[in-house]
Design a protein that fits this description.
With 200 residues, the chain is an all-alpha fold. The protein has 2 domains: 2-27 and 146-194, Endonuclease Iii, domain 2 (Orthogonal Bundle); 34-139, Hypothetical protein, domain 2 (Endonuclease III, domain 1). Helices cover 62% and strands 0% of the residues. It has helices at 2-11, 13-22, 34-43, 48-62, 69-75, 77-82, 87-101, 107-110, 115-122, 130-139, 152-162, 170-177, 184-194. α2 crosses α13.
Length: 200
C-alpha cells in the first residue's frame, strides 16, 4: 500500500491533496461468493437502511445453510417476495442461483481470471451490469486497478476535484485516471472519501 500511495501522490498533485486530507487507506473487503453478489443485487437502487432491512428478511427466508443457490431456489418465490424483493430483483436472484447451480458461473474460479473475463462472466447474469461487476472486482476480488466509470460518486468526485463543467463520461474518466495505473482502485477509494463532508 505504501507503493500505491507513493505512486498516486507523485502521479497526480490534486489526488495528493485528497490523500493528505483523507488520511490512511482503510478499506473493508468482502469474499468472492454467491452471497456477495446476491447482496449486491438486493442493494441495487436502494438506500442503505431499506436495503439492509430487505436483505435481512431475505437471509431469514433462506434459513440454513444460508444464502446459497440451492436455498434460494428451494424457498419459493412467494416467500422471497414477502421478504420485500421486487419481482424484477427476484428474477435476477433466481437467474444468479440457476447459473451458479449449473456451474455456468463458478465463484471459485473467478480469482484466476483477468478483469475483463470476470466482467464478461458476471454480466451474463440478469440484472448484473458493468457497475456491479466493477464493485465485485474492487471489493470481493480486491483487484488493484479498477476505475468504476459508471459510478456516480466517482464521477461527482472527479467533477469537483478537477473543476469540470459537467460529470465526466467514461473516456474522459479513463484519460484523467491514466496516471493512477496500476493503482486505480486505491485512487477510486480516495475519490469516494473526498465526497465525505468531513473531507471536503
Amino acid at each position: 500500500m505504501r507503493a500505491a500511495i507513493s505512486h498516486l501522490k507523485k502521479a497526480d498533485p490534486k489526488l495528493r491533496q485528497v490523500i493528505e486530507t483523507v488520511g490512511p487507506y482503510r478499506q473493508q473487503f468482502g469474499e468472492p461468493t454467491f452471497e456477495y453478489l446476491a447482496r449486491a443485487i438486493v442493494y441495487q437502487q436502494l438506500n442503505g437502511t431499506a436495503a439492509a432491512t430487505i436483505y435481512g428478511r431475505f437471509q431469514t427466508a433462506c434459513g440454513r445453510p444460508g444464502v446459497v443457490p440451492q436455498r434460494v431456489l428451494r424457498v419459493g418465490e412467494e416467500r422471497l417476495r414477502a421478504a420485500g424483493l421486487s419481482k424484477q430483483k427476484l428474477s435476477y436472484l433466481l437467474d444468479l442461483a440457476k447459473r451458479t447451480k449449473r456451474r455456468e458461473l463458478v465463484f471459485e474460479g473467478l480469482s484466476e481470471l483477468p478483469d475483463e473475463a470476470v466482467i464478461e462472466a458476471l454480466t451474463q447474469v440478469k440484472g448484473i451490469g458493468e457497475w456491479t461487476a466493477h464493485m465485485f472486482l474492487l471489493f470481493a476480488l480486491r483487484r488493484p486497478d479498477i476505475l468504476p466509470v459508471g459510478d456516480y460518486g466517482i464521477r461527482a468526485a472527479m467533477k469537483k476535484l478537477y473543476g469540470l463543467p459537467e460529470l465526466p463520461k467514461p473516456d474522459e474518466m479513463r484519460r484523467i485516471g491514466a496516471p493512477w495505473r496500476p493503482w486505480s482502485s486505491v485512487a477510486s477509494w480516495y475519490l469516494w472519501r473526498s465526497l465525505d463532508a468531513k473531507n471536503p
